[in-house]
Here is the input.
Amino acid sequence: MSTKTTRISALLPSSLVDEVKKTSEMENATQSSIIKKALEFWFRTKLRKDIKALSKINFDDLPSEEDWDLVQFSL
Here is the structure.
């Protein structure tokens, strides 16, 4: 399955660009693929962090079954 790609423009510190270039040469890969891998890693890390935060949500403030029945009955 082909993924649609979009060109973006970003201003990055030259030290970061130098590292991307070095990695690109060492891995014989395009700079785009290096940046794509880095962004995918960042996104996976963000998702893990978000999942942990969501797993800690306490749902004590939800009404009970009886409360729901009363609300629905009064409508």
DSSP finds three helices and no strands in the chain.
